[in-house]
Amino acid sequence: MVSEMSELKAMTKQLLLNAFGGESMAHMRYLVFAEIAEKEGFPNVARLFKAIAFAEQVHARNHYNVLREYNTDETVSAGTPIGPGSTSKNLELAIRGEEFEVNEMYPVYLEAARYQGVSEAEKSFRFALEAEKIHAKLYREAKEYVDQGRDMPIKGKVWICPVCGHTYIGEEPPERCPICGASRSMYRGF
Amino acid sequence: MVSEMSELKAMTKQLLLNAFGGESMAHMRYLVFAEIAEKEGFPNVARLFKAIAFAEQVHARNHYNVLREYNTDETVSAGTPIGPGSTSKNLELAIRGEEFEVNEMYPVYLEAARYQGVSEAEKSFRFALEAEKIHAKLYREAKEYVDQGRDMPIKGKVWICPVCGHTYIGEEPPERCPICGASRSMYRGF
Ligand SMILES: [Fe+2]
Ligand SMILES: [Fe+2]
Ligand SMILES: [Fe+2]
Ligand SMILES: [Fe+2]
Ligand SMILES: [Fe+2]
Ligand SMILES: [Fe+2]
């Protein structure tokens, strides 16, 4: 294990750090946005924000765990949309963050990890990329409802895979996670 | 409100952003460390990590809220200790992070906000600085127990002020928060 980790390349290490920073901030933004949605009378959108905050926690934890062999202080450079406001505006910020991760950040990070042959980082980036695609879609749906002054309908629960952050709305989680293969019983419902 | 915020100086704005990034990562690290402490059989240390994770959430939310008039994408530069491992090692990382905030980061951020006359930022940095002093002390105490193979004794609960992140161990929270003046009934217990 130690020998495997000592081969972690400097560039990939920095990308893991930046992704840890980005996911930690995404998690935090969604907790702030959930509080505001609750106050504005959109309880299902609040639930969606809380559930996806947990998915981002899964991503942050996965990235951070790849760095386990170190004991150093590092500097992270990561992007964040700013300007919390109404739930409509917050959904706009959320969509922008997710779309950046889907279209720019994770594809490049994934390619870099693959090129440098760091399979643990590649897996962690791939799990995040696949989940973010679903987040972007769900936030776009939520914004359509909120912009009509309505809460988003949620039949059942928002289910999160605690291994990869896969996000699914339904009465029951899928039998197996389509991203990582985890079994139904592992999902956490919100 | 809009006119007040449009006076937010560029330097202070960047420090708020960096502090938002730093607090978001501290929150996330402590959630990761809490899970590990739980598994290692240190339930009270896990509780301490979870409670302080919430205090860092309060700090991150306060910093982020000062930026409410914007609708832009920004880049954050923030430090984080890396290398999650045993609870003893994690407490070492936690102490290092808190001590950096107490001795270097927040005193400088506070001075910059004061110098630029941004009172909302000054308040947000001051709340964090005062709470981090307590965090550093509590983590040092916890590490002494863990390094003897013992869980930290906690009489009562770990209480967090949801306005400023003040952290207090006892049967009851204080009548008034010594940092921000919030009343006893507002505290959240862990
Ligand atoms: Fe994510
Ligand atoms: Fe996401
Ligand atoms: Fe999964
Ligand atoms: Fe803090
Ligand atoms: Fe702290
Ligand atoms: Fe307080």
From TrEMBL, chains A, B:
PANTHER family: RUBRERYTHRIN. Residues 6-150 form the Ferritin-like diiron domain. This is Rubrerythrin. Pfam families: Rubrerythrin, RUBY_RBDX. The keyword Protease does not apply. Keywords: Electron transport, Transport. It comes from Desulfurococcus amylolyticus DSM 16532. Residues 156-190 form the Rubredoxin-like domain. It comes from the Archaea. One of its GO terms (molecular function) is iron ion binding.
